[in-house]
Write a structure and sequence with these properties.
single chain; 240 residues; mainly alpha; three-stranded antiparallel beta sheet; 11 helices; 54% helix; elongated
Length: 240
């Protein structure tokens, strides 16, 4: 009876009970609003970890590093591909730690791969203005709502569009904004990357959109309550 239940819950038995990352992967997918493509990638890396014997009980920075470097040898993957797979593993590892399924730390010690990043190509002021006008003209039904939070995609995107443009904040700082960061018709935060204070004034229309998001927010966050960071990045890119 015990052996049957263990198999059903995703454990394998070989004298010692081992927990694989499929349960962690399922937990992450069920608790985050992610795209089907991202779900497919998470399940793929989970299967790869299982095939190479990496479980929630024996995972270390060394075993993950060996797995990633072996992929370069076997498949001649680029540094960009390996970096993406590294992010997927670390995402599951950290989620496992946050849920108590994994006790081993050391995710930050996993081998990193150097990337050659092309220079950023910014949109012109005219392009940004035109994009926002098109966004305003679209109906609520055109975008619909996010699946889990039920937040209006159009409201989220309009709020993000104006807040990001007027504040010039990095993606992570903008995504993490809370009600406590809104002061005197503007934003006052400490930037996570530099540790420096940042104060930005916002137009009244932008403050009104932020207030609309906060009226729906269950935890005082402006953007993060409605959608996960990876999905937010993809959604903004797709909208542009």
């Amino acid at each position: 009876m015990v052996r049957t239940l263990v198999r059903l819950k995703g454990f394998t038995l070989g004298g010692v009970r081992k927990m694989n990352f499929h349960i962690v992967c399922d937990s992450y997918i069920n608790s985050h609003d992610i795209s089907k493509n991202h779900e497919r990638r998470l399940r793929s890396i989970t299967n790869l970890m299982a095939e190479n014997g990496i479980t929630t009980q024996n995972i270390t920075a060394q075993t993950v590093s060996l797995l990633l470097t072996s992929l370069r040898t076997k498949h001649n993957y680029s540094n960009q591909t390996l970096t993406h797979k590294r992010r997927l593993v670390l995402c599951l590892w950290r989620h496992g730690i946050s849920t108590g399924a994994v006790t081993a730390s050391g995710a930050d010690e996993v081998i990193a791969f150097q990337l050659k990043r092309p220079p950023v190509k910014a949109y012109s002021r005219a392009q940004v203005s035109n994009s926002y006008k098109i966004l305003q003209a679209k109906s609520e039904d055109y975008f619909g709502n996010f699946r889990k939070s039920k937040c209006s995609r159009k409201l989220w995107l309009m709020t993000w569009f104006r807040t990001a443009y007027e504040s010039g904040l990095r993606f992570g700082d903008c995504y993490s904004l809370q009600d406590t960061d809104i002061h005197n018709a503007g934003i006052a935060i400490t930037m996570r990357k530099t540790g420096r204070p940042a104060m930005r004034s916002l137009q009244a229309e932008t403050i009104g959109l932020i207030d609309s998001m906060l009226n729906l927010s269950p935890d005082g966050s402006i953007f993060s309550w409605a959608i996960g960071p990876n999905m937010a990045n993809q959604f903004v890119s797709k909208a542009f």
